[in-house]
Amino acid sequence: MALLASAFIGTGLKAAGQYKQLKNQSEMHAYNAAVARRNGELARRVGAFEAQRIREEKEIFLSAQTAKFAKSGVRFEGTPMQVIAQTAYSFEMDVASTLFNSEVEARFQESQAQIDSTKSRLARSQATTQALMTLTKGLGQAAFQSGLGQTKSVNQPTG
Question: Are 39 and 109 in contact (CB under 8 A)?
Fold first, then answer.
């Protein structure tokens, strides 16, 4: 009987350990999902900040460029105007590239957050299922080995 009690206790401890381990995995994945979501938000903010910085730099550069043309007495038509327009275009392409790259990073992080959220839900669901399976299997084996799961055969007359 002590052996049976020991098997029951051991099975219970094993099931509890499995449950705790999978619960911890679930919490880890939930944490990772939250971090990925924040990283996605941060990527967008950094991209917007960097785009604004490039635009401010563009304004300073274009002002200096325009002042140099004006100082030299050049009229703002034809080639000087094309140079200024090309400069503005180049800066805006940098802005577009920066915003695009930050959006790509943000979406990657959001996808990672969804994957981690799914892993968290699966681990949480698996925790209960695995613990119950371990209990059922362990208790069944212990009962069978102790003789509780065997039926007594009744001698029937042969004849």
Answer: yes
Residue type at 16 in one-letter notation: A
Q: In the chain, what is the straight-line distance between the N-terminal and C-terminal CA atoms, in Å?
A: 39
pLDDT tens across the length of the chain (159 residues):
677 677 778 888 888 888 899 899 999 999 999 999 999 999 999 999 999 999 999 999 999 998 988 888 877 778 888 999 999 999 999 999 999 999 999 999 999 999 999 999 999 888 888 888 888 888 788 777 776 655 555 566 665
Say how far apart CA 155 and CA 159 lie, in whole Å: 12
Element spanning 50, H or E: helix 2-71
Domain count, the chain: 1
Nearest to 141 by CA among 11, 18, 1: 11
Our CA dihedral for 116, 117, 121, 124, rounded to 10 degrees, sits at: 60
- The verdict on residue 151 lying in a domain is no
Q: What one-character DSSP code corresponds to residue 147?
A: T
> Does 147 map to a domain?
no
In a domain, residue 66? The reply is: yes
- Pair 72, 64: CB distance under 8 Å: no
